[in-house]
């Protein structure tokens, strides 16, 4: 026979496991709510004229001050776009670049995920350290 504190401990563990499962399921559902569409990302990249600064196929920037984007990880690109969108409204998270801030203001989070998927799909000259 279990003592009262052991029974309470067992109930608490079960409740925590249930909450964790529900939270994880919600997180998975939220991420699946918008599967990134690279073809829409290409349309957005063309519409926003990303190649004007980042060059053909977003791999040959017109200035060394601009990054090569082609092949960059989608999660990194998405977060960078979100940071530009936040701009100086959140100095701890935002990126301060007036050109990029203006480019991303009209984008939804889904649009940014689509752009990120498109950029990741491109062949690029990025080199990963081994």
| Name of the CATH homologous superfamily of the largest domain | Cytochrome c-like domain
Number of strands: 0
Q: Report the biggest beta sheet as strand number plus sense, adding barrel if it closes.
A: none
H-E string: HHHHHH
Work out the count of structural domains: 2
CATH fold name of the largest domain, please? Cytochrome Bc1 Complex, Chain D, domain 2
Structural class, by secondary structure, is mainly alpha
Q: How much beta, percentage-wise?
A: under 5%
Total of DSSP H or I helical runs spanning 4+ residues: 6
Instruction: Show unreliable segments.
Output: none
The oligomeric state of the chains shown is single chain
CATH architecture descriptor text of the largest domain: Orthogonal Bundle
- Helix content estimate: 55-70%
Structure description:
By secondary structure, this protein is mainly alpha-helical. The chain has six helices and no strands. The model has no long low-confidence stretch (mean pLDDT 82). This is Cytochrome c553. Residues 36-123 form the Cytochrome c domain.
Topology at a glance:
Elements lengths: L3 H29 L5 H10 L3 H4 L19 H13 L11 H7 L4 H13 L9
Helix pairs in contact: 2-6, 4-5, 4-6
């Amino acid at each position: 026979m279990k003592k009262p504190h052991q029974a309470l401990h067992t109930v608490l563990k079960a409740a925590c496991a249930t909450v964790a499962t529900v939270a994880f399921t919600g997180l998975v559902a939220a991420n699946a709510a918008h599967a990134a569409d690279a073809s829409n990302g290409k349309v957005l990249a063309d519409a926003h004229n990303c190649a004007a600064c980042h060059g053909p196929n977003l791999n040959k920037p017109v200035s060394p001050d601009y990054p090569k984007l082609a092949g960059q990880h989608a999660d990194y690109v998405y977060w960078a776009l979100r940071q530009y969108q936040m701009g100086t409204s959140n100095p701890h998270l935002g990126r301060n670049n007036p050109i990029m801030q203006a480019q991303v203001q009209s984008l939804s989070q889904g649009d940014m995920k689509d752009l990120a998927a498109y950029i990741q799909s491109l062949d690029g000259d990025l080199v990963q350290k081994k």
